[in-house]
Amino acid sequence: MVAVVGVLSGVLGLILGSFLNVVIYRVPAGMSVVAPPSACPRCATPIKPIDNIPVLSWLMLRGRCRSCRTAISPRYPSVELGTAILFAVVAVVFSTGIDELSSNTEIIAWAIELAAFLYLAAITVALAMIDIDTHTLPNPIVLPSYAVTIVLLTAASLVGGDVDSLIRALVGGAALFAFYFVLLLVYPRGMGFGDVKLAGVLGLYLAWIGWGPLVVGGFAAFLLGGIFAIGLVLLRKADRKTALPFGPWMLAGAWIGILIGEPLANSYLTFVGLA
After folding, report:
1. 124: enclosing H helix or E strand
2. Cα–Cα distances in Å, from 33 out to 22, 26, 101, 180, 193?
């Protein structure tokens, strides 16, 4: 059953990955993501459905527009494939123990929880790529994520009878938002308000899993971002004044906290003799 859920989620990720390419290009430009239909940016020829099959179409066209033969960036299939892999991994992790669910209520609660984290996977891809391109985390993606996340986690909590996790998620989201907001006030040059708003969303997910994952995920963002920045400085591709996007590292750190934060936190507590 776990394998089936993983495969189906991977296929869903491929399909959504194609849409996310549209989101990544159009949202920062203030364009609609539904109209007009996708077209070649050079010859303006609308892309036919046969040429819009995730990954496969790019391979069949050998990375070029069918009409004008303009090269199509390999980033497009990379986003599609990356989304598929992330969806599959998330589905497998959150489906562990699914065969032990004994009631329809438990299955529904699991499905809602999985939907919530697959949503996070989708916005992770979009926000990471947009932040790399434009150094922004657009409100049209971040702000609605509060509503989507709270609705889904609330539904999972009520159906599954786990109100404690919902309360913890709300407190954790507020706490991580406040922490980033203080950092913004202390050192505004090193933090954007987009990072602060994203922190609240990530805090909801991390604290839903547990307090340990919240701490691990929050710390991992700064660790990964710091290592990357130091590496660029050592390679002389950046200096102390270079503005670097932090959103991708916040998202990467959050997934570390979600996927392995609990065992990491427990191992640390055991090491220092607190567990």
Report:
1. helix 104-134
2. 6, 6, 38, 30, 24
